[in-house]
Amino acid sequence: MNELMFFSGTGNPELARKISEHLGVPVGEMMVQRFLDGEFYVQINQSVRGDDVFLLQSAAAPVNEHLMELLIMIDSCKRASARRVNVVMPYYFYARQDRKVKPREPVSAKLVANLLTVAGASRILTVDLHSGQIMGFFDIPADHLYAGPIIADYLIKNVPVEGAVVVSPDVGGVARARALGEFLGAPLAIIAKRRPAPNQTEVIEVIGDVSGRTAIIIDDLIDTGGSVISGANELLARGAKEVYAACTHAVFSGNACERLLASSIKKIIVTDTIPLPEHKRDSKIVVVSVAPLLADAIKRIHTEGSVSELFSKHWKGQT
Fold first, then answer.
1. Same-domain status, 134 and 40
2. What residues are labeled active site?
3. Rounded-to-integer distance, Cα 28 and Cα 45, Å
4. pLDDT at site 316
5. Do both 135 and 173 map to the same domain?
6. Please, what are the averages of pLDDT over each run of 10 residues along the chain (319 residues)?
7. What was the pLDDT predicted at 277?
8. Is 219 in the same domain as 233?
9. How many Cβ atoms are within 10 Å of 62's Cβ, its own excluded?
10. Do residue 140 and residue 155 come from a single domain?
11. CATH assignment at residue 241
């Protein structure tokens, strides 16, 4: 009873394997099938009665299918009398639809929170939300981890950070960039931009001195690559020596990977919250793992330890 049980959906099996190794707990036996009409069928193939269950599922493409699979996984565990069902969601579903800006728009991130709760989730564990306000969408405990220290560790060991400048690609990412800048001992610059249409960006101004410096653009995600590429070009035009880009979630929609590889960016550092297919891998793209961070958080949650201490341990700048 109250044993830690770890299961994974089909969204990120490689990350599940790494977390399992760090936990010292095997990935549980679960069958996921699809009927001819597209409906999912999930069956837990071992007892979870009275246990502390952790379900890993990330918002990798196809997003809607992985979300539905997760909801059914939660329901399966609740109906199997699991004591607690903890959802480990490295990349949160519909995170960018977190507020109503135009008339008759949905707030889909809140809808996802409702769906998870109604399905039977007891707790949510996620990494680098697009906006912190999503934490307030839940009436159940929600823990928010930061991948910044993992990215910073790579930068310190592999990038000339002395004399570098950390760049926020927009005003909304200033807190994230400032925290990384404090970690690296680097000043901050901000790219002011506007979005004339979805997945389209236009640089208006760069606030801060980047001339003669190595510029490191940090963001929570890269989708089409348009923002980070246009930002890098503007930084180089303003005298930056070279530009690195880093993000937590490598969404890389459409031909984003090809565009990034052909861009002026020297190297792109991402994490494995979303699996990067083999055909999108390249020496220019470096993947660092959040598995140790998630495994540590899972252990703390299971033993009723403090997750906030983990935040402080990894990065005081964002807590």
1. yes
2. 193
3. 8
4. 45
5. no
6. 93 97 97 94 96 97 96 98 98 96 95 98 97 93 94 95 94 91 95 70 84 97 93 95 97 94 97 92 94 97 90 49
7. 87
8. yes
9. 11
10. no
11. 3.40.50.2020
Supply the pLDDT for residue 281: 85
Rounded to 5°, the CA angle 168-290-68 comes to 95
By residue count, the chain amounts to 319
Instruction: Copy the structure tokens of residue 234.
Output: 């503007």
Q: How many domains does the chain have?
A: 2
Same domain assignment for residues 213 and 250: yes
The answer to whether residues 89 and 125 belong to one domain is yes
Q: Is 190 helix (H, G, I), strand (E, B) or coil?
A: strand
Q: How far apart are CA 23 and CA 113, in angstroms?
A: 27
Q: With b meaning 16 or more CB within 10 Å and e meaning fewer, what string describes 272-304?
A: bbbbbeeeeeeeebbebbbbebbbbbbbbbbee
Distance CA 85, CA 123 (A): 7
Examine the domain organization and report whether 209 and 296 are in the same domain. no
Residue type, 191: I
pTM: 0.92
* C-alpha span between 301 and 123 (Å, rounded): 9
Per-residue pLDDT, 198:
61
What's the domain range around 92?
A: 4-146+291-318
In a shared domain, residues 163 and 119: no
Q: What is the pLDDT of residue 309?
A: 82
pLDDT at 197: 63
pLDDT at position 172, please? 86
In sequence order, what are the beta bridge partners of 244? 216, 267
